[in-house]
Amino acid sequence: MAKGPTPGHGPLAGVRVVELAGIGPGPFAAMLLADLGADVVRVDRPGGAGLGIDPAHDLTNRNKRSVVLDLKSEEGPARVLDLVERADILVEGYRPGVAERLGVGPDACLARNPKLVYGRMTGWGQDGPLADRAGHDIAYIALTGTLSMIGRPDEPPTVPANLVGDYAGGSLYLVVGVLAALQHARAHGEGQVVDAAIVDGAAHLATMIHGMLAAGSWQDRRGANLLDGGCPFYGTYATSDGGHMAVGPLEGRFYAEFARLLGIADAFPDRWDLARWDELRAAVTERFLTRTRAEWTEVFAGTDACVAPVLSLTEAPHHPHLAARSTFVEHGGRTQPAPAPRFSATPVSVRTGPALPGADTEAVAADWDVPGLRPTPRD
Predict the structure, then answer these.
(1) How far is CA 367 from the centre of its chain?
(2) Which residues pair with 122 in a beta bridge?
(3) Nearest C-alpha neighbor of 357 from the set 37, 84, 49
(4) Which residues contact 127 (CB under 8 A, 6 or more apart)?
(5) Any idea which residues carry the catalytic annotation?
(6) What is the model's pTM?
(7) Phi first, then psi: what are they for 236, rounded to 5°?
(8) What residues have CB less than 8 Å from 130, skipping those under 6 apart?
(9) Percent helix, strand, coil in the chain (nearest 5)?
(10) 222-237 pLDDT, tens per residue?
């Protein structure tokens, strides 16, 4: 069933966004804008994106609406520009120059709507020696030094899914960028292009680490530092049943409680004696292997020892704290993360399931006053 706009839901209610369909960080950024209340119209291409899951299960297309336009056809770009004329933000994730060749690049769009915020999501950015090259999350975080920090020192770097590059370094920076540019556009009547590159965002995420490196408090090697698994009281440990516990009592009073509950309170009086960190890690490892994950969870429950069980994706929604906060919600029979963050005056929610390609053409044509979106009747 076609969906109409849902005004009044979230702080971005009334903001109109055109999303040129892609994969990965672009759709996630548009989902975040939609979660916050924006009316996001996704322009899908005939035949789908060519890479991705069944649209009916693609949660990154929740809270959106979809129309199908062929940007390689004579009429396709013109219809996109009709939408752009009525939009506040456009999001695209093509390689540099592709949108221009299709007739929907920044010059064409800003000529039609000078107040438009044109958000560009790429891995390498709009310029530079690698701008035209293919790539994925893992290459972007590799080049920035971010990947080098993750994993054990005696093993290759650990791949952190595509969360650090695509979504943290990409989507979130694009959203911050387009919202900042939207504020400028509304204050000064001037649109602009936002060049969000995953390499830029992933590098920026490590700003604190670079400061520590400059101060001499961080070694430029994996598994040798306070926050990268080098510290025996900041890491993960296996339990007797094959589960894991996450340990992070950095502050003195928290560590004292952790050591007491673990049963090693008197064994290592100076936890900052780096020469004995291997011994301390061995002792912590041995202790955690004496009980199951559930047993250790009970031991540390209700304490400030900064210890938590490592839960799986399917276990996490059932944790009492996350359940109490409704961190995960069910919509349309699918359990999924709830929109975040939360707002006291303009609450957000999962309003609709994934937008199916082309399902909302009639509604968008009416709501945005773009009659050209409607298919031409056949004789």
Answers:
(1) 29
(2) 197
(3) 49
(4) 96
(5) 136, 166
(6) 0.94
(7) -120, 150
(8) 124
(9) 40, 15, 50
(10) 999 999 999 999 999 9
